[in-house]
Amino acid sequence: MTADLIVRAARIENFTGTAVPNARQPLAARTGSVLAVKDGRVLAVGGDEILGRYRGTGTDVREFPGATVTPGLTDAHAHPVWGSIEIGSGLDLGGLATPDAVCARIADHLGTLPPGAWVTGFDLDINVFGAAPGGEIFERRFPGVAVSLMTRDAHALVVSPTVVRQVGLTGQETFDDASRIVVGADGIPTGFIVELQAMGLVFDHYPDVPVTTAAGHVATQLHRLAATGLTGLHAMDFTDPSEAVYRQIERTGDLPLRVRCSPLVPADSGPDVWAAVAETQALAGRRWHVEGAKFMLDGTADNGSAWFDHPDALGQNRHPLWKDVEAYRAAVRYFTERGIPTATHAIGDRAVRFALDVIEEAGNPGRAPHRIEHIESIPDDLLGRFAALGVVAGLQPVHATRMTRPDQSDNWSRRIGPERVAHGWRTRDLLDHGAVVALGSDWPIGIGDPRIALADAQLRRPVDEPTAAPVQPGQRISAREAYAGMTTATATAAGAGHRLGRIAPGYAADLAVFARNPLDLTPEEQAVNPVLATFVDGSPLVHVTQETLPR
């Protein structure tokens, strides 16, 4: 048999560190230096004998002297459509730590906009405002300008009084979920808009982005992500215009990586909505498909909308986002009975506990496991339940290292208190209790470059801040465990451990070619380890130059 593609490097490396249910064969680590691909699948792995056995006149032979070929990395939690549109059309506020810095960035941006245009932005650090976020400062600095800035966790907006007036917000609005329009002591909206349904009132007034423009933004960002070693994403967003965007991109080419999409099931929705989400499971393109359903059982600790056993320092973080948690229970059962896996956003300990209870009652959906995402702080008694129930834990290393501070001066830490902070992002503990831990970025909320996330997971501090103290240093993991979290674990999370996440005969030829073996490098070296090429189904995307994503 003649191969379509042969890849030769210094070595081929698989990553152990998590169980792989239904794998075709036991997982070997270093398996050789040459691999052959036929019809998008790995045909054989070995040494130079592969060249003699499978090379034909039409075989594409790719040589990478000194390099290491690994399974392509998959980000277990990202938002590629709305994230790309935000980056393409909004103002990046990342790294700004004071109100003056935010206003200066807005002032610079205003000069590029026509009169009357909205200023929209993302990655706003909630700590900028202290204890009382609000938009009055924008009215003082930019009278009559509509300013709407999304906070870093993407669960709130800070808007100017002009936006409040244009949208007609009163503070008396009611929502199906726990969204709210925050008002001051005078009963007037402060400009702090919390959670998705309330935010939607503002989003309805955002300028329209044509599908062709949105598709250009998404294609650009996906190529940038692929340049960092990613061959797949688990997209936790699939709403308008997701399908149109993916189909538009595929009209002229292929996505540079695979995208597995899980639509959101809105809080307190009913069977009609659930049925519509279930119907989307048939949607697919060449490199994207819909599989699974996303739930948000609570919000975020920073906004006081997470669900903990005990209130935070402000008396908040004590309610679920679903006002009717029995509707959540019924919805998870509905999807499970139809073989559709669920992914539940659960940040507080009470939310995680309730989600585990519901999943235990609902059972296993079959083709892929249920997942719980974020899991920001949980007590000891919940650690073993993930493995016992076969629930995948989805964690984002950069949230732990870049959204909190070791001295606990950040908003998250001040709110939930030192005891719960000490139980934050328990990557090491979950692995030690046998859980499958799938690692992601929450991009664009977190940094999308997986090399940075995996380095942070090993250091428990920002890899680019060598003098920073670690956050919960006991939760550090090894390099092999980290890379397993974006290969074998993400394949398991997608119910695809038999065809993705490793380099072995019969598996999809999704590959990353690193200049050096990540396992031989320090975390600091891993973060800048050049990616020479990625392959999806054996199709190459060669990266001549390297860049580290700023987001």
How is the secondary structure organized here?
Layout: E1 5-13, E2 30-38, E3 41-46, H1 49-54, E4 60-71, E5 73-78, H2 80-89, E6 91-92, H3 99-110, E7 119-124, H4 136-141, E8 147-151, E9 156-159, H5 161-167, E10 180-183, E11 189-194, H6 196-203, H7 211-226, E12 230-235, H8 242-252, E13 258-261, H9 271-279, E14 288-290, E15 293-296, H10 325-337, E16 342-346, H11 349-362, E17 371-374, H12 383-389, E18 392-395, H13 397-402, H14 411-416, H15 418-421, H16 427-432, E19 437-439, H17 450-459, H18 479-484, H19 488-493, E20 511-514, H20 523-526, E21 531-536, E22 539-542
Parallel strand pairs: 1-4, 5-12, 6-7, 7-8, 12-13, 13-14, 15-16, 16-17, 17-18, 18-19
Antiparallel strand pairs: 1-2, 2-3, 4-20, 8-9, 9-11, 10-11, 20-21, 21-22
